Amino acid sequence: MKIKFFKSHELEKPFRLSVHRSGKLGFTSEAAKALELTQEKSISIGQNEEDESDARLYMVVHETVEDGAFKVAKAGAYFYLPIKLLLDNLQIPYETESIAFKMEKVNDGGAIYYRLTRLENEKRGSNVNEEEPQEEPEEEETEDDI
Known about the structure:
This protein is mainly beta. 9% of the residues lie in helices and 32% in strands. The longest helix has 7 residues, at 29-35.
């Protein structure tokens, strides 16, 4: 038997992208570096039209600003996409829920794109923890108990 060992530094890891309350899709610095994002690029986002049960989004990065694509924007050191209108059209409740996606690179016969899988989330601005059970008051001892 011949074993091929994986090299940890060569494994591609998925990145987490977060949607802000303002409707911006934010990229971590690691994701922006992996995508080689600049303000001169744009990104197309779409869905799998052959499979309506596929709830994931798909993303392609363009080297220039393409017609119909979302222009990459930057605030400070962070990159984002202004996708508020898309989120509204897809009825994604970004204003009331914490929305995040796992972004994975896909190489489909030489065509590179990214699969965005929505991560489970919590409601924004509310206490999501269940109410802790109240302790029952201790009964007072009576003379009969002593």
